[in-house]
Amino acid sequence: MPKIGIIGAGSWGCALALLLYKNGNQVTVWSALADEIAYLAENLEHPALTGVKIPDDMLLTTSLTDAVNGMDFLILAVASPYVRATAKKLNEFVKPGQIIVNVAKGIEEATLFTMSEIIEEEVPQAKVAVLSGPSHAEEVGRGIPTTIVVGARENETAEYLQNIFMSEVFRVYSNHDVMGIELGAAMKNVVALAAGIADGLGYGDNSKAALITRGIAEIARLGAAMGCKTETFYGLSGIGDLIVTCASAHSRNRRAGILIGQGKSMEEAMKEVKMVVEGVYSAKAGLSLAQKYNITTPIIEQVNAVLFAGKEPAFAVKELMLRDKKAED
What we know:
Layout: E1 3-7, H1 11-22, E2 26-30, H2 34-43, E3 59-61, H3 64-68, E4 73-76, H4 83-90, E5 99-102, H5 115-122, E6 127-132, H6 137-140, E7 146-151, H7 155-165, E8 170-175, H8 178-200, H9 205-225, H10 236-247, H11 252-261, H12 266-273, H13 278-292, H14 298-308, H15 313-321
Parallel strand pairs: 1-2, 1-4, 2-3, 4-5, 5-6, 7-8
Antiparallel strand pairs: 6-7
Helix pairs in contact: 4-5, 8-9, 8-10, 8-11, 8-13, 8-14, 9-10, 11-12, 13-14, 14-15
């Protein structure tokens, strides 16, 4: 029976813990927050996964020693702003060759590193993989059929993880384009903010379809310049994740965008959503990457202007619509 440590007890970490437990694995869930572990132990459910029960024999702990030592692999399931600090803590416990699967989605603003690059820097002895795709925790926790992609540079690692995660309700594909998977996962959150803003302004399906299709074009252009495989962006971790994040009621990025479109500030929107809105943290990094690689990303540019420069959302949309004529690419 494989032993798996889940580093992070948020809704996504708990949903994956339940999936892996049902697949016959021994699962331990860790959080740095004693109150969070106490709540889970007392209620046997995560507050964002109402009605989805945590088995009473699943180990819940605040001890990294218990969560890491002897585990076949780890899942790093903290929000992207906390990946580096958590990886630093993991360093002394992770054994050479131990696998860490990153499931956070973001780009670090200061370094422009993906999450796997951060983990590789902080825990160089680990093998790093990623899991991404259209997969809201609320649905995975309930066993709703979901399809996702695992990324690893080595065939052996990708196939091993694919076998562990696969079930009748969780289909897993493999892909070696780790950078492409992570770039799509991070930048789709920025486009989802734009989609939410359009919803908040009262725009319709035409507007959302335009943002999704032109948004993936921006992301794919940037990815190609960074050496990623273009086809990655038209797969599960690209267009698949973008569609669900732009359209779903579960999407915190879309929800924050809606509030901003309705007139709230970025800070007010984040406070009301009450969860980490990762697109806000990735927006500046996405724009910096576009400037570094000399790639035009008008949607990402306008989202940054709305979030950080006080631009009126309706005026940002008008500027997008009135850009110079060009051929579709």
